[in-house]
Amino acid sequence: MLLAYSSLPRVWRALTWAHWTAMGAAMMLVDTGTEESRDRVRERHPAWADQADAAADEALRLVTATTIPGRDPGWFEPDDQAEAALRGQALRIVAGLAGGCLQACPHADVSRPRPLFAAAWGDRVDCLPCFRSAPPPDTPMSAAESHRCDLCGRVSSGPVLLATPTIGMLTIGMGVCRRCLRRLMASGGVAR
Ligand SMILES: [Zn+2]
Ligand SMILES: [Zn+2]
Fold first, then answer.
1. Cβ–Cβ under 8 Å, residues 3 and 62
2. What is the pLDDT of residues 160-175, one digit of tens each?
3. Rounded to whole angstroms, how far apart are CA atoms 169 and 163?
4. CA of 86 to the centre of ligand 2 (A)
5. Could you tell me the distance, in angstroms and rounded to a whole number, from the CA of residue 49 to the centre of ligand 1?
6. To which H or E segment does residue 154 belong?
7. What is the pLDDT of residue 104?
């Protein structure tokens, strides 16, 4: 329902970061019976479910295997604030794909699961080969956009750090400010 509504192009284009995050938070409140709905999907579409599981495993493997020289990648369990933002972004991407608001590579099709890549600030969804060869965006990010934290929405004076959480087959590039990073570290959700 939320997906159908938010994928309407005129709705999708009008929604801001704060709207998506609020919807992500709402999804956390009403999100009961996830296991049952997964079981139902598995029952009705077993082949798709197997492919989706394989795509999710592959997405996690790709993210885990990607190392940035000289950087120690940290792993964070999202707290509630981060999870609301993350779910909101996942909804934004799936709705953008469904309604045609995001530019999708020809292989970005949820009926044929495979790892897909998108950015919280971007307007594209790509499979891995297309992601690697995607052209740079036509309009570069404004200074405010490039300093905005995709977890708390704050525009910080310092640079944001790149986080690449995966949700199922989706890997989402998100900027995280130092304040959120400190909060996540303090909440004890760090595993290196
Ligand atoms: Zn592709
Ligand atoms: Zn933040």
1. no
2. 998 999 999 999 999 9
3. 16
4. 12
5. 20
6. none
7. 95
